[in-house]
């Protein structure tokens, strides 16, 4: 392995061939060492980054004649280093070989630290060497600390590491849960609800075992598909706190996440009340049986519910560890209750239980209960709607994702296993209860079969009991009538009651924890700024205590209502909406085909996820159609609100990815469409520099490109490439953000070039994409051309020539005050900086005053602070006054007003179009588009064209006919017949005085002198040139007189741009034409199309 150092980088004084060495691998034995010792030049061993063993196996062997140079190099004062001071990029020190693979490079090996976000709780973020650091020539004599090279090369030595380590230390006491305690237990408890004990038997009675299994299976399909989609999303990156909200918002963006997050948190808060009321109702039923009522059933529910929710709040506030322990205890009770039921099914039934319909496992009962027997008002979907909420709860583990050790592994594993276990339990209970208990029973032990009685296929009759009277009058027992069937069947009835208590309390506890966690994550993202108060967390676990209190208040409010039958369907639909969006998130991320979508959980399919989303939406309407409508309306309202507010977040959502894919597909599809004159639209490159420095130029262009054409604000950075590229890249995002903030539909593009003209030439050729390429160049008029260096004038006129060479139209805008307000912006920035410094100083002084403990010292410090303020404030004021006085010329109120003149609604007036030369119609199309804009709609078009004096009426009629065919409305048409007459002597004199400093006057000199002057000043206007284009010069001066006469009061003048023939018209003469043409006029827009049709009268 050989290493090559470039001498011009590391050692300017040493020839390149003396700075080459090789590192060879040798054997670790005595013979090789002895052989090495026999060499004339003994080997030098260096440390490398391969480890201790590898360090012994590497030897540096020098090429002949290099040893002496190397020794001299090490001993020179510039490069010989000690451990305390060595060159960060020195390749000849021992420490260097501790860097990446021992190569002479700053490249860093791949490490996880480079890919972490700033402020990551899982570890410090490291900054790899930038491409600039690797690519550019290395600096010499850089003072660095010991071992700095290793830290930089390996990404360890970055600012803020100590803070990150301290942050890790702070996280040491945080309680984190594994997949069993954190996800499996919670999901199982939430899925096994009260429905298992008091409604599943009724569902089997109504739907039968067959349809009952289908109902359970359909519910499980919904939850399983959602679980698969959630698993895919969870394994596509690190999951933070926030559960379903986090998954949806990071996948679909803040609009979907913010809308569903709020209603999901609210649903969990109300679910606390639902579960607690269910618990309270069971307790009240027990009190009724023992005749121990406190007040009345409703108020007893309120009292017991309030006490229960206070206790649950205490457990939650005590910390996640206590809450987890409580959940484990409740799960044990629940498992014992379920086991108690299955044991009871095999315990021989007694006469009392038989009279209530329980006969142990009987094939006849199984056969009788297999088919459905819906009572009046019930059907498959109504029974399904009652059961489905029992299958929910799969998000219980995901909702505390921030408290899991490894959410990516825990959520998929725990959730899917919980769905499987609970499904087996539901199916087992449904089949067992359907095989043991008849649908109707009287409960009377004397209702036995009389000899000779016909059973008519009744299972109970075949087993010796006559329950035939249940067909004519209501009975209290059996699957259809008794909600306490599981208590009757179980081996020990009170354990089922304990199971009911466990199911309700565990679900309430899970919801009480989930709601604040989700709500806190939502508030931290600051999507709803009014809710920022609830983002604060407390303690090592960042507990959302404020969220707990809010959830407690919501739960208490609904508990005191004590009537949840109306709100329950809405809550179920809120949960289903979350499931639907989780499925849709997985589908959307897959459909967007983003390279960042790489879930480790591979058992998913995007179309299956879409099916799951559609299924969830369908189930919402099956459960309760009006509740589904309310859910969609609320979610739509919140979506619109978040979209309108546009939160400043960027999560790399699939919505962004799909936007890119759609734009790319549309751009590619557009390339297959041939250009047609009817679809022509101005697509402009605007040379604004920074878009904020020439706002008026951008505004007038945006007025005729908004919603109809492409607008690209362009800037050319001229100078050393390294500095220009750095400045360009640093400001790219800021300037595009300025466009977005000011609601300007335009792109920002910049190039670095050796000269301005080269940069513009690059932009003209390379800007745009496919069919969306510029066809018009918009520039501001160079107002200071007479004072500007010659190179600037050459560049300015040169870019006009370049645009015409590339068959691109040109538009030049002139306003009286000019466009550039960069100096005004600099003054404003300076004033803002001084104001911020003053406010910061006052805030610091105020904080210091608050922190003083002693009264006497505090008073003394207060006086000193006041003294400091009185000294500082005049200084700031003086600075401001100085700046204002220094920049009195730049800080021009007229300039500021002029820069916003095209933002305002234009007063009622005219846009005068001087369509002197047919350029394809661009000179006419642009003002027409302007009149369609709200700000310009009160301006009417007046058309001015040249013509013959003796044919004015005929040409006016012809032009009116043409405009009507183009369907362009106009207020008036003027035929100008005296364009070609000579201008007045006063106007011509002004023009001659304007060009006088730039004339060569070669005709007044001898031939030799004239030739010499032409060679020395080729840019000057020659007498021959002036004479050759005298008629054209007359025309420009005469046109200004006509413009002064006809259009002095116009809101805007649109005028055909004169074209300077290359090689015939000098740059200065052309600038003089433009100057005299647009002098002392309202805003002027000089336009010249590329002489291809942009207007047509064909359909």
Polypeptide structure, described:
It is found in: Cell membrane. It is a multi-pass membrane protein. Keywords: Cell membrane, Chloride, Coiled coil, Glycoprotein, Ion transport, Membrane, Phosphoprotein, Potassium, Potassium transport, Sodium, Sodium transport, Symport, Transmembrane, Transmembrane helix, Transport. Belongs to the SLC12A transporter family. One of its GO terms (cellular component) is apical plasma membrane. The protein is α/β, with parallel strands linked by helices. Among the domains are: 445 residues, Up-down Bundle (Amino acid/polyamine transporter I); 131 residues, 3-Layer(aba) Sandwich (Rossmann fold), CATH 3.40.50; 178 residues, no CATH class. The protein is built from 40 helices and 13 strands. The strands form two sheets. The chain has a ten-stranded mixed beta sheet, with helices on both faces. It has a three-stranded antiparallel beta sheet with strand order 1-2-3. Helix 34 links the parallel strand 9 and strand 10. Helix 10 packs across helix 17, helix 10 packs parallel to helix 23 and helix 13 crosses helix 21. The longest helix is centred in the first third of the chain and has 36 residues. It is elongated.
Average pLDDT rating: 79
Summarize the main sheet: 10 strands, mixed
Using only C-alpha atoms, the radius of gyration works out to 42 Å
The dominant shape is: elongated
Relative strand content: 5-15%
Strand order of the largest sheet: 6-5-4-7-8-13-12-9-10-11
Intertermini distance: 73 Å
Q: CATH superfamily of the domain at 179-443 and 466-645, please?
A: Amino acid/polyamine transporter I
Q: Report the total helices.
A: 40
The CATH class label of the domain at 179-443 and 466-645 is Mainly Alpha
In terms of structural class, how would the helical and strand content be classed? alpha/beta
Tell how many strands the DSSP assignment holds.
Answer: 13
CATH structural architecture of the domain at 179-443 and 466-645: Up-down Bundle
Instruction: Enter the CATH topology name of the domain at 179-443 and 466-645.
Output: Amino acid/polyamine transporter I
- Estimate the helix proportion, in percent: 40-55%
Query: Uncertain regions: pLDDT < 50 for 5+ in a row?
Result: 1-100, 140-171, 853-891
């Amino acid at each position: 392995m050989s290493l090559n150092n470039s001498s011009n980088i590391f050692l300017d004084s040493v020839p390149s061939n003396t700075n080459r060495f090789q590192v060879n691998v040798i054997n670790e034995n005595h013979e090789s060492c002895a052989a090495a010792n026999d060499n004339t030049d003994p080997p030098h061993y260096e440390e490398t980054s391969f480890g201790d063993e590898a360090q012994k196996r590497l030897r540096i062997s020098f090429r002949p004649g290099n040893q002496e140079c190397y020794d001299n190099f090490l001993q020179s004062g510039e490069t010989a280093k000690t451990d305390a001071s060595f060159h960060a990029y020195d390749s000849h020190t021992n420490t260097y070989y501790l860097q990446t693979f021992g190569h002479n490079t700053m490249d860093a090996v791949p490490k996880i630290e480079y890919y972490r976000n700033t402020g990551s709780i899982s570890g410090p973020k490291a900054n790899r060497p930038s491409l600039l650091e690797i690519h550019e020539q290395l600096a010499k004599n850089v003072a660095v600390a010991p071992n700095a090279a290793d830290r930089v090369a390996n990404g360890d030595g970055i600012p803020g590491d100590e803070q990150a380590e301290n942050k890790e230390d702070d996280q040491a006491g945080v309680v984190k849960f594994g997949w069993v305690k954190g996800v499996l237990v919670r999901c199982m408890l939430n899925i096994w609800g009260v429905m298992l004990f008091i409604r599943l038997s009724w569902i089997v009675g109504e739907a039968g075992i067959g349809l009952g299994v289908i109902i359970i299976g359909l519910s499980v399909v919904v939850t399983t598909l959602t679980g698969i989609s959630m698993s895919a999303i969870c394994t596509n990156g690190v999951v933070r706190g926030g559960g379903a909200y986090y998954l949806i918002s990071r996948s679909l963006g803040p609009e979907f996440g913010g809308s569903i997050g709020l209603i999901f948190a609210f649903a969990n808060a109300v679910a606390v009340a639902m579960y607690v009321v269910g618990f309270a109702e069971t307790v009240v039923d027990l009190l009724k049986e023992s005749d121990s009522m406190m007040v009345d059933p409703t108020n007893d529910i309120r009292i017991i519910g309030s006490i229960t929710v206070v206790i649950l709040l205490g457990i939650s506030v005590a910390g996640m560890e206590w809450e987890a322990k409580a959940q484990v205890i409740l799960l044990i009770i629940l498992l014992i209750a379920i086991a108690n039921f299955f044991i009871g099914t095999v315990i021989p039934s007694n006469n009392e239980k038989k009279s209530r319909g329980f006969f142990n496992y009987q094939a006849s009962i199984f056969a009788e209960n297999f088919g459905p027997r819906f009572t009046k008002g019930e059907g498959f979907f109504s029974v399904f709607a009652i059961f489905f909420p029992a299958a929910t709860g799969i998000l219980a583990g995901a909702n505390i994702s921030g408290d899991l050790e490894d959410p990516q592994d825990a959520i998929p594993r725990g959730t899917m296993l919980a769905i499987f276990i609970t499904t087996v339990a539901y199916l087992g209970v449904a089949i067992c209860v359907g095989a043991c208990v008849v649908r109707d029973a009287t409960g009377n032990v004397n209702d036995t079969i009389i000899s000779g009685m016909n059973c008519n296929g009744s299972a109970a009759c075949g087993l010796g009991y006559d329950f035939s009277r249940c067909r004519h009058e209501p009975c209290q027992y059996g699957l259809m009538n008794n909600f306490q069937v599981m208590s009757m069947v179980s081996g020990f009835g009170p354990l089922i009651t304990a199971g009911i208590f466990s199911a309700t309390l565990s679900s309430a506890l899970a919801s009480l924890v989930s709601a604040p966690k989700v709500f806190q994550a939502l508030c931290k993202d600051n999507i709803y700024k009014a809710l920022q108060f609830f983002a604060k967390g407390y303690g090592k676990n960042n507990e959302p205590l404020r969220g707990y209190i809010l959830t407690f208040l919501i739960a208490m409010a609904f508990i005191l209502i004590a009537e949840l039958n109306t709100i329950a369907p809405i809550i179920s639909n809120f949960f289903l909406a979350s499931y639907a969006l989780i499925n849709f998130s997985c589908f959307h991320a897959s459909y967007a085909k983003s390279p960042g979508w790489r879930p480790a959980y591979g058992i998913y399919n995007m179309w299956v996820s879409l099916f799951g989303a559609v299924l969830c939406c369908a189930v919402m309407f099956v459960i309760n159609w009006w509740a589904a409508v309310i859910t969609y309306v609320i979610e739509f309202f919140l979506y619109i609100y978040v979209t309108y507010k546009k939160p400043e977040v960027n999560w790399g959502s699939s919505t962004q990815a799909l936007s890119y894919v759609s734009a790319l597909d549309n751009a590619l599809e557009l390339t297959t469409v041939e250009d047609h004159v009817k679809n022509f639209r101005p697509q402009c490159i605007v040379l604004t520099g920074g878009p904020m420095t020439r706002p008026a130029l951008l505004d007038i262009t945006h007025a005729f490109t908004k919603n109809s054409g492409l607008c690209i604000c362009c800037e050319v950075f001229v100078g050393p490439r390294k500095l220009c590229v750095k400045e360009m890249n640093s400001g790219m995002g800021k300037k595009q953000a300025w466009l977005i903030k000011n609601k300007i539909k335009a792109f920002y593009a910049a190039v670095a070039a050796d000269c301005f003209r080269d940069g513009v030439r690059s932009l003209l050729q390379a800007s745009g994409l496919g069919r969306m390429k510029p066809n018009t160049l918009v520039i501001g008029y160079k107002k200071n051309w007479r004072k500007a260096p010659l190179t600037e004038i050459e560049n300015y006129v040169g870019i006009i020539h370049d645009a015409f060479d590339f068959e691109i139209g040109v538009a030049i805008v002139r306003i009286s005050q000019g466009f550039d307000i960069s100096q005004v912006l600099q003054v404003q920035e300076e004033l803002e900086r001084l104001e911020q410094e003053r406010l910061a100083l006052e805030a610091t002084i105020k904080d210091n005053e608050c922190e003083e403990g002693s009264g006497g010292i505090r008073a003394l410090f207060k006086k000193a602070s006041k003294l400091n303020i009185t000294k500082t404030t005049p200084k700031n004021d003086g600075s401001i006054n100085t700046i204002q006085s220094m920049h009195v010329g730049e800080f021009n109120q007229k300039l500021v007003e002029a820069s916003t003149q095209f933002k305002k609604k234009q007063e009622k007036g005219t846009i005068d179009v001087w369509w002197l030369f047919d350029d394809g119609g661009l000179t006419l199309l642009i003002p027409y588009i302007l009149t369609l804009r709200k700000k310009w709609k009160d301006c009417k078009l007046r058309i001015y064209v040249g013509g013959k004096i003796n044919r004015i009426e005929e040409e006016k009629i012809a032009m009116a006919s043409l405009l009507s065919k183009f369907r362009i409305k106009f207020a008036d048409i003027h035929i100008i017949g005296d364009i070609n007459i000579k201008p007045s002597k006063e106007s011509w004199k002004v023009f001659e005085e304007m060009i006088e400093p730039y004339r060569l006057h070669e005709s007044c000199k001898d031939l030799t002198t004239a030739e010499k002057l032409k060679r020395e000043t080729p840019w000057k206007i020659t007498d021959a040139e002036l004479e050759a284009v005298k008629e054209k010069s007359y025309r420009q001066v005469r046109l200004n007189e006509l413009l002064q006469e006809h259009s002095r009061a116009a809101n805007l003048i649109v005028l055909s741009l004169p074209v300077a023939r290359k090689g015939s018209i000098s740059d200065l003469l052309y600038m003089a034409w433009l100057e005299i043409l647009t002098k002392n006029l309202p805003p002027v827009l000089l336009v010249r199309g590329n002489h291809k049709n942009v207007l047509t009268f064909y359909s």
